[in-house]
Amino acid sequence: MDTQTGFSKFQDKFTVLVIPIAFMISVFVYFFVMGAPSNFQGNNSANSPLQGNYLGIIYRGGYIVPLLMTLLIIVLTFSLERYYTIKKAHGNLPPVKFVARLKEYLAKDDIQGAKAECDRVQGSVASVAKSTLDKYEQMEKDKIMTKEQKILDIQKNIEEATSLELPSLEEHLPALATITSLATLLGLLGTVLGMIRSFAAMANAGAPDSVALASGISEALVNTAFGIGSAAIAMVAYGYFTTRIDKLTYAIDEAGYSIAQTFAAKH
Which backbone phi and psi does 142 adopt, to 5 degrees? Predict the structure, then answer.
């Protein structure tokens, strides 16, 4: 329990720190890397970007760019963190194979062997299974409760153990889902603001300048590309992690159901 509490506190601190750190990195990259004078004509960031210099072109996207960069860094950071967390939750054996082995032990009524397998495999499925096996042994020794009450108690233990595991697996997934929409909207906002600036500049200049207009539009569309790209990465990551968590949840349910059914059949 102390280990779980410590890990939970670490996750909370990690979540709180990621956003400001990502924003500071984005601002630094925007002003000092993309906005470096060497990326622009005349070695001056107030001028047009050099031909083919994408850093300068992105810099011209305006102050929405560092916000989009912040979202992208958050997506990448949370995705890496979720990948390693869920990989660890799978344990040392694929959940499907672990459940199959667990059933073999249960079929032989080898509870100690099943618990030893849980210790060897580790991970979320094994953690729930071992907790349920402990309850299984406890119910075997109980001489007061009825069989139905014992089965209900085992099922309750399964639900409680599962409810402790799932929140840690789903951490940061709501943020990825939110960024999927937020990045797209921010990108469109940056594009609209860029188009307004471009047409306002054209109106003030008098005669239409097709080159200047095309340049302004291309710079404005940088925000759309950045926003859609970030949203696409967030969407793919969210779908991938959701699928892996669903597989873990199914394995947990299957393991718990097998243990409860074994108890019902043998007692």
Answer: -70, 130
